[in-house]
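Appendix B. One record, verbatim.
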Amino acid sequence: NKSTSSTTNKSRSNKRYSNNAKYIGDCAEKQVLTYLKTAAGHSEFDVAENLRWVAQEGEKPGYDIEYTNSAGDLIGVEVKGSISKNFSNFELTANEWSAAKQFGDRYALVLVANVDKSPRFECFWNPAADSSFSAEPSSYTVKRLS
């Protein structure tokens, strides 16, 4: 059981993400929010009122955008963006996956491919119950007990 020096314990950047990940994510969220404000978006997603970009407000409820539908239900919309033309996989945080399971049919996952050129949206309602997805842990938080 060897200790490592403090220099090796410093956090490192996560190489799975591009240097522009925050920018790409914000662009995708803005594009989805803009669509939800249109008549087509209102109709397709049943947006009735209280449309908010909660991620931009610093909130982390497990989704990026929320609104109330015509039945009075709170709807959570998680947005994932990529500059690639297609998504083969993506990551959800434990908080996002928990919200997807809790909200069920009131949770939409919107994948925005080709964010920087000609964005293409794919929407999945209740992704936690969608058999076309397989979720597996990709990292663990390890805590020192003593």
